[in-house]
Specification:
- The protein folds into six domains: 2-62, Helix hairpin bin (Helix Hairpins), CATH 1.10.287.610; 73-312, DNA ligase/mRNA capping enzyme (D-amino Acid Aminotransferase, Chain A, domain 1); 316-418, Nucleic acid-binding proteins (OB fold (Dihydrolipoamide Acetyltransferase, E2P)), CATH 2.40.50; 430-516, 5' to 3' exonuclease, C-terminal subdomain (DNA polymerase, domain 1, Orthogonal Bundle), CATH 1.10.150.20; 521-591, DNA polymerase, domain 1 (Orthogonal Bundle); 613-682, BRCT domain (Rossmann fold, 3-Layer(aba) Sandwich), CATH 3.40.50.10190.
- 36% of the residues lie in helices and 20% in strands.
- It has 25 helices and 24 strands.
- Strand 16 (372-377) and strand 17 form a beta hairpin.
- The longest helix has 22 residues, at 2-23.
- Zinc ion is lined by residues 329, 406, 408-409, 411, 424, 426, 429, 431.
């Protein structure tokens, strides 16, 4: 026991050290797998010694039970907003007011980039994170501690010893670009619309009542100020920043002390270039009087502190005339309208196209063909239409109607909830087929080894595959793919030969395709890429209905009886199986002998060992050690390595040793192998 305690403490410190290196200093000393291994070790130890789990353990970041709602919390020190300026002259005016307020005293500024995120306040008491809160109206916010704890950049306990009794850290929760993109890819794979904008998605994430569901999003945090502090005094904000850094709280690595407002203006100009190359969105720079005493002397208006100003970079805008709208089909079939305009210069590039996002947006803007539109390039790389100059609208400007058919395949389209998106529902749509095939062959779906992105592009481009079922007829074209057999019809042999594919790789591919026919129904269902149906839901549905035929016939109500299937998902499953294309898709696979049944598993819910901890000792007659451990897990229980007061049952085989003695001493129920089998069968 003392060893476990020490090991746990050592692992936690090690993990926290690596977190600090990564989030505060921006470097790493170990590989991801090595970091994960530390984490796994800690988790295993804590599972064996649940009494040693504390709320500040790094393992506690995974999120907790969903909440019914958020508690309101009053901020000890209000969270004011910051006044904005848009020009160097406005900055100089601000500086004039500061100089006047300080009546000739010398002063300097602390500047740091304005991260485009969501404000949050973190309250540490005795070094432990006690409260994470939203800004709310500035006086009262929501208690979002559970969600805050899932953010790896935020320490659950402060590092070192010199932190004060109470410190409230104020800062910005934001979504780094790379993690945002990675998460969006995942959403697309699951058939969910990707998030449009990192800031709004961050706000939505922080408002989620289910912290466990957001733990993997990869949000980050950067501190820019403080609220209440008890038990410490700092002279300047720069000193405070240094302390944050020591305690393991990330601050901007670009923060800087500037001697005067001209130095601030220089920083602003330089940062405008730098900010485009960094991994998160910033829309300005904040300058604050550095000395805290001087801040107090300057005070605040009812809305803004007088010692602080934000410089915001203006979004680049230009006017042009909308000539037409074309429709683009995404890989999930989403049809997005795109403005085609007279060429116009914007942020140094010639722009002809701008995003209109969706048809809701088209209606909201009331944009028509022939209109003069204002396009803007802000954080986003793709310019967008932000408004119509209605005064310049010509007579007969034409309204824009959503397409009635898919512009690529002429297939049926459907409108989403609220009519925001229009979507092509033809699974054989060429615009979607490549991406769908890649997903179909993916490791978590049909797991066809060798069917990578480049190969699938070739298979589609060279006319071999139009729908999933075509994969299973590829063997018929082996000669053509190798360039040996002249093809029939319109193709030249060279047009049909696959690049960089020798005999061996083609045969391996064909074998992998044949093997995939045996995948369980759950994977086939997931591979069909039905909107909202990800791997986990597919498994639940497949287990409930057993065969594809049964799923195809299930009513929306019956589908919703499955745990975790909501109305949206049930509706989406129905739409797929009711559409001619959906039916043809799965029936074609069925004709190719792709397995359409789910192997029998223990019915869900029969978990007689739920919540129980078992220890197994001695040699068993009917089970290997791994086997019985798996069975216990399947039945809802967990196994531990040693007997303690928390053990519910000790299962004993031949030659049981000291564990049996200990169990008897502690009064733990002892089961023979036969009794164990009886216990698990009785309760079914
Ligand atoms: Zn289409």
């Amino acid at each position: 026991m003392p060893n476990a305690k020490q090991d746990i403490a050592r692992l936690r410190e090690e993990i926290e050290r690596h977190d600090r290196l990564y989030y505060v200093e921006g470097r790493t000393e170990i590989s991801d797998p090595a970091y994960d291994a530390l984490f796994t070790q800690l988790k295993a130890l804590e599972a064996e010694h649940p009494e040693l789990v504390t709320p500040d353990s790094p393992t506690q970041r995974v999120g907790g039970e969903p909440l019914d709602g958020f508690e309101h919390v009053a901020h000890a020190v209000p969270m004011l907003s910051i006044d904005n300026t848009y020009s160097p002259d406005e900055l100089r005016e601000f500086d004039g007011r500061v100089a006047k307020g300080l009546a000739g005293e010398a002063y300097e500024y602390l500047v740091d980039p304005k991260v485009d995120g969501v404000s949050a306040s973190l309250r540490y008491e005795d070094g432990l994170l006690r409260l994470g809160a939203t800004r709310g109206d500035g006086k009262t916010g929501d208690d979002i501690t559970q969600n805050i704890k899932t953010i790896g950049a935020i320490p659950l306990r402060l590092h070192g010893r010199d932190w004060p009794e109470v410190v409230e850290v104020r800062g910005e929760v934001y979504w780094p670009r790379d993690r945002f993109d990675a998460y969006n890819k995942k959403r697309e794979k699951e058939g969910v619309e990707p998030f449009a904008n990192p800031r709004n998605a961050t706000a939505g994430t922080l408002k989620s009542l289910d912290s466990a569901a957001i733990a993997d999003r990869g949000l980050s945090f950067v501190a820019h100020g403080f609220g209440e502090i008890v038990g410490a005094a700092f002279e300047t904000a720069a000193e405070m920043f240094q302390a944050f850094k020591r305690w393991g709280i990330p601050i901007s690595t670009d923060a800087k002390v500037c001697k005067d407002i001209e130095a601030v203006i220089q920083f602003v100009e330089r940062w405008d270039e730098t900010r485009k190359a960094i991994g998160y969105e910033t829309d300005g720079v904040v300058a604050k009087v550095n000395r805290l005493e001087q801040r107090d002397a300057l005070g605040a208006t009812s809305r803004y502190p007088r010692w602080c100003i934000a410089y915001k970079y203006a979004a680049q805008q230009a006017e042009s005339v909308l000539r037409s709208v074309d429709f683009q089909v995404g890989k999930l079939g989403t049809i997005t309208p795109r403005a085609v305009m007279d060429p116009v210069q914007l942020s140094g590039t010639t722009v002809r196209h701008a995003s209109l996002h969706n048809f809701d947006q088209v209606e909201r803007l009331d944009v028509r063909i022939g209109d003069t539109v204002v396009v803007e390039k802000a954080g986003e790389i793709i310019p967008q239409v932000v408004r119509v100059v209605t005064e310049k609208r010509p007579k007969g400007a034409k309204k824009i109607a959503p397409p009635k058919r898919c512009p690529v395949c002429r297939g049926d389209v459907t409108k989403d909830e609220g009519g925001v998106y229009v979507r092509c529902i033809n699974p054989a749509c060429e615009a979607q087929i490549k991406e769908r095939l890649k997903y179909y062959c993916g490791r978590d779906q049909m797991d066809i080894e060798g069917a990578g992105d480049v190969l699938i592009d070739q298979l589609v481009d060279k006319g071999y595959v139009h729908q999933y079922a075509d994969l299973y007829r590829l063997a018929e074209h082996r000669g053509e793919m190798l360039g040996d057999t002249p093809p029939d019809g319109l193709f030249e042999p060279s047009e049909r030969k696959l690049d960089r594919m020798g005999e061996k790789s083609i045969d391996n591919l064909l074998a992998a395709i044949v093997r995939s026919k045996k995948q369980p129904l759950s994977r086939v269902l997931a591979a069909l890429n039905i909107r909202h149906v990800g791997g986990a839901s597919a498994e639940l549905i497949a287990e409930r209905f057993g065969t594809m035929q049964h799923i195809a016939e299930a009513t929306v109500e019956a589908l919703q009886e499955v745990d975790g299937v909501g109305p949206e998902m049930a509706e989406s499953v129905r739409v797929f199986f009711d559409s001619a294309a959906g039916r043809e898709t799965w029936e074609a696979l069925y004709r190719e002998d792709v397995n359409m049944t789910q192997p029998e598993t223990r019915p869900r819910g029969a978990r007689p060992l739920a919540g129980k901890t078992l220890v197994v000792t001695g040699t068993l007659e009917h089970f290997g050690r791994k086997e019985i451990e798996k069975l216990i897990k399947d039945l809802g229980g967990k196994t531990a390595g040693s007997v303690s007061k928390k053990t519910d049952y000790l299962v004993v085989g031949e030659k049981a040793g000291s564990k049996l003695d200990k169990a008897e001493k502690l009064g733990v129920t002892v089961l023979t192998e036969a009794e164990f089998i009886e216990l698990t069968e009785d309760s079914e």
